[in-house]
């Protein structure tokens, strides 16, 4: 494809707009850390089992990262793909667990089906969605609102601002739990013995 200067300039502007849109979406989340967020925080801290994170597509990829961040900062967490959950993996979820389900629309069929199965088993579900009146929200015990005004891409279609907002909300939950659990850098070092960060932290502990 030939490089057209005007198109390059418009592409650069789209890149700037994307960053500004995603920054605004994340900033808006701060005002939503209300009573529901506090209820979720307490529920996760009191959970005797695992926080099982689930999602599909881009939300699933974000869910994997949220689960990894939680696990590395003192909250037992794991990820189950919503599609796999409908083919037997739901059996890994026990009555001691909580489930965090991600879906921007709140209507992802597999995520909703998994949430419905969990509800029938009496297992609490935390919805992370941009649609508070969605099917997923109705099936859930708690709903974390990650609504965005628009996606960051020029077509307003690709999961961009919505996935960034979900990722930020997951990080916010993990950070709050670090404080609640009094998880410190010594604990972090024990979970990260390899790599440059682990070696530096373990060196500080010596």
TrEMBL record:
Source domain of life: Bacteria
Pfam families cross-referenced by the UniProt entry: SIS
CDD domains, sorted: SIS_Kpsf
Positions of the SIS domain: 40-183
Protein species of origin: Kribbella yunnanensis
InterPro entries: GutQ/KpsF_isomerases (IPR050986), SIS_dom (IPR001347), SIS_dom_sf (IPR046348), SIS_Kpsf (IPR035474)
Protein name, UniProt field: SIS domain-containing protein
């Amino acid at each position: 494809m030939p490089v057209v200067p005007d198109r390059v300039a418009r592409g650069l502007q789209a890149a700037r707009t994307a960053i500004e849109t995603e920054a605004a979406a994340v900033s808006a989340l701060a005002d939503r850390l209300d009573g529901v967020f506090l209820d979720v925080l307490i529920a996760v801290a009191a959970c005797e089992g695992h926080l099982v994170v689930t999602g599909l597509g881009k939300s699933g990829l974000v869910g994997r990262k949220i689960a990894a961040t939680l696990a590395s900062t003192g909250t037992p967490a794991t990820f189950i793909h919503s599609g796999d959950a409908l083919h037997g993996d739901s059996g890994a979820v026990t009555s001691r667990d909580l489930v965090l389900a991600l879906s921007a629309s709140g209507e992802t069929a597999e995520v909703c089906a998994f949430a419905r199965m969990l509800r029938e088993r009496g297992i609490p579900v935390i919805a992370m969605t941009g649609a508070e009146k969605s099917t997923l929200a109705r099936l859930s015990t708690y709903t974390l609102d990650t609504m965005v005004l628009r996606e960051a891409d020029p077509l307003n279609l690709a999961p961009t601002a919505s996935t960034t907002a979900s990722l930020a909300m997951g990080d916010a939950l993990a950070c709050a739990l670090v404080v609640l659990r009094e998880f410190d850098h010594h604990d972090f070092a024990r979970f990260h013995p390899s790599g440059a960060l682990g070696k530096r932290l373990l060196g500080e502990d010596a």
